[in-house]
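Sat 14:20. Reprocessing the chain from the morning session after the first attempt stalled halfway. Input below, unchanged.
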Amino acid sequence: MAHAHDLLTIGTIAARSGISVSAVRYYEARGLIAALRTSGGQRRYMRGDLRRIAFILIAQRLGLSLDDIAAELANLPQNRTPNRADWAAAAARMAATIDRQIAHLVQMRENLGGCIGCGCLSLDRCALYNAGDKAAARGAGPRYTMGDRPAAKPAD
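Finished this time. Tokens:
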């Protein structure tokens, strides 16, 4: 059970983490952090939530989605403040995701010169968005910019 001196108000946690009160509420609504409630219904946060918010902000800067971040936070202990080993394990799990993102960005950079301004979007020569003109089978027009999604690439 948390002691009263270990609990922070929503304004305090927002100020100390450098985010807005509305962002704290949003993270709570997404299940990324959890508030305790006082008898008057006010939110109170554990000091450990400051580290969770820092993790969220760093993971977002690394390009992870909130769904990815939520999945990673779900691996952390809920009954205590995560320790150094918990955070190290989270970082190790995230490294593979980051490595995939880096590889994708390198591939994009390599193909970018032939893609800027070509306007192909559905021609067979587009190595980035439509290799082999797969989008043509879905209909006329720039299918991917119209909301269609390319099929997932097989895992390496």
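The helical segments are 10-17, 21-29, 49-61, 66-74, 84-112.
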